[in-house]
Amino acid sequence: MKTLVLALALIFGTGFAYSQKYAYIDSDYILGEMPEYAEAKEKLDKLADRWTKEIEKRYDVLKMKKDNFAREEVLLPAEEKKKRAEEIEKLETEAMQMQKTRFGVKGDYFMKRQELVKPIQDRVYEAMQKVASAKKYVMVFDKANQSNLVYADGKLDISNLVLKELGISVK
């Protein structure tokens, strides 16, 4: 009896699995075809570059002050040593705080990325959902974000359908 139940479960389970439809997209490819993504990425890159230069300038000033202090420390009176050490510590704290403010987990870069890129990613996701629903796919994987996806048949790639849903013509 157990064997019969197991055999039936295997037969019907296998048939059910074969009736499932799967597909994948390549979000890097899709985003690469979207002009608004390229614009958003360029804006982000410019901001990151500007902020990085600001931070580097602070660290350059800090390094110069530390070097000067190290050279002159033996000649300075105790009060001046303490004053300069506190100034260096303050500059170091400010530089680290600026770095955290600009590039930290909830920093300016993260917030700007959310503002510029997330709406584009949301549009891609919505288009992918429409295509998946219309084609009756039960699962859609993202090739670009699957570190454990080792193989994907090109026939299952629906990236161009998603681009078409977004109104972007494919070359």
Overall strand count: 2
User: In percent terms, what proportion of residues is strand?
Assistant: under 5%
Structural class: mainly alpha
- Please tell me how large the radius of gyration is: 28 Å
Mean pLDDT: 86
Task: State the separation between the terminal residues, measured CA to CA.
Answer: 59 Å
* Form type: elongated
Helix content: over 70%
Strand order of the largest sheet: 1-2
**What oligomeric state do the depicted chains represent?**
single chain
Number of H/I helices:
7
Word description of this protein:
With 171 residues, this protein is mainly alpha-helical. It is 71% helix and 5% strand. A two-stranded parallel ribbon has the order 1-2. The chain starts with a helix and ends in a 6-residue tail after the last helix.
Name the descriptors.
single chain, 171 residues, mainly alpha, two-stranded parallel ribbon, 2 strands
Write the layout of secondary structure elements.
Layout: H1 2-19, E1 22-25, H2 27-32, H3 35-72, H4 78-103, H5 108-116, H6 118-135, E2 139-142, H7 159-165
Parallel strand pairs: 1-2
Helix pairs in contact: 3-4, 3-5, 6-7
In short:
The protein has 171 residues and is mainly alpha-helical.
